[in-house]
Amino acid sequence: MQQAQRPANAPTRFVTTRFGNVLGSNGSVIPRFKEQIAKGGPVTVTHPEINRFFMTIPEACRLVMEAATLSRENQIFVFDMGTPVKIADLARRMIRLAGFEPGRDIQIEYTGLRPGEKLYEEVLATEENTLPSFHPSIRIAKVREYGFEEVDATLHRMVQLARDVNIPAMVDLMKETVPEYVCTTDFWKKKE
Q1: What pLDDT, on the 0 to 100 scale, is given for residue 15?
Q2: pTM recorded for the entire structure
């Protein structure tokens, strides 16, 4: 495999945005809860204490467009998501808005956390790991920087490990490359 050569004066700018859940988007709990309520329940929530950050589609679009147009270099923008919402509270509110009483007319069923699912969302928006930006609701993440050659070599190693189907080595390389990475399963290990 030939090594990619990045031009020294590459004009490409990489802008990443990081934020929580967008209400009403694909995969949002709102349409699922509405459907479950329309069927008479139960409304399924993974855990009574699980919470998530939310923003509306217009809010998300505006912040993404501002980040994309106002950034001056390769940056990761973290949006201020406000206060997290307990999913169980959201379910109860939606049941009441539909004219029912939670626990009497429509039950809330707790299904348990899925593998790797966390009770609390981490958005990386503290002053310790972000810097202010041009917008009060957008912060700039302070992140490790990797040189092109280092990233290129790591990607080639990952491709080779994938071709060899060497999952343990792939996970080890991912943990080495991104120390925060947590592998939540050991499905590849042989059961003894």
Answers
A1: 82
A2: 0.65
